Amino acid sequence: MKEKSLFEGMSENNKGKWRNIERNGVDGAGRREKTRGISRGGGKIKMESAGIMPGGNQCPSSALRPGLCVTKSPEMRTRNKLAPDRPSAHNLVFMRINPFLRSPLPLACLLASLTAAGAQTPAVPTAEKTAASAAEKAPAASTDGFTPLFDGKTLAGWTNPYTFGEAIVVDGEIQLTSTNKFFLTTEKSYTDFIFEGDVHLPEGKANSGFMFRAIIKEQPGKNTKSVVGYQAEVDGDAKRGWSGGLYDEGLRGWFISPIKGDAASEAAFKTRSAGAFKRNDWNTYRITCQGSKIKIEVNGVTTTDVTDDRTPSGPIAIQHHGEAGATYRFRNLRIKELKK
Fold this sequence. Notes:
By secondary structure, the chain is mainly β. It is 12% helix and 40% strand. Strands 8, 10, 11, 13, 19, 20, 21 and 23 form an 8-stranded antiparallel beta sheet that branches. Strands 9, 12, 14, 15, 16, 17, 18 and 22 form an 8-stranded antiparallel beta sheet that branches.
């Protein structure tokens, strides 16, 4: 069956929110269905169906209108996101029955569907199936040794240590929105590695960055945390042009590449990074950390190559700078861990 879905967002407790799922065609049980209009949190659903219902009962399209039947949807694997309190063995999507409909046919379809679903026995997963399922969910390393940090569909492996800021997945991108500066971080920490990722800044005033070997700090007296440490700068200020510089977020600031206020250092940085960053386009960053050596490349141009040993390891993070209404976009996030 052809299926099109859009993942709209993820709440702070990492429970999925889904909407706008459209399915057209014939599923594995021979049913022709068209489903659309799933609301956030598994709310009301409107369905138009035609074809064979569970148990082999015919449900002509003339008898089926939005909200008339209950149909079994084994291909809708997102159902558990919508109704986690219902057994996955039944996979039922319940519809509201029109109380003014007098034809007995929709009711017969409803009863037949419930009977067919109730006759099923939940399968007990074997150890082999459980292991295979876990292997499928784990990010697969590519032939060049890189492992995806983002699967293009969910925010698995990522966390928001703040009490504000929103991260959603749209068309293979992580999109950040917020009215305050925040960082979305990986759950795992990394020591020596090569990281790669693409970033697209919003128009207007904007600033972002890829943090690495980051430090997540508690904030006494506040119901949130903060993220500090190394950051590969993504500078939306075309005049300043410090994209690819090394900023020490919340700690030393512009301490080395370039050194803020040092005219010679700033000039040297602008010379080596000139033309690397594309303001209104996608930009690919590559960050290499091995021991105390740190190198940052922007679209293949080396903008920073320094030595500093302040922080040996920590998570990766992506930043929203806090401009209301601005959307920061990230994709193709991956990492290759290096041996010492």
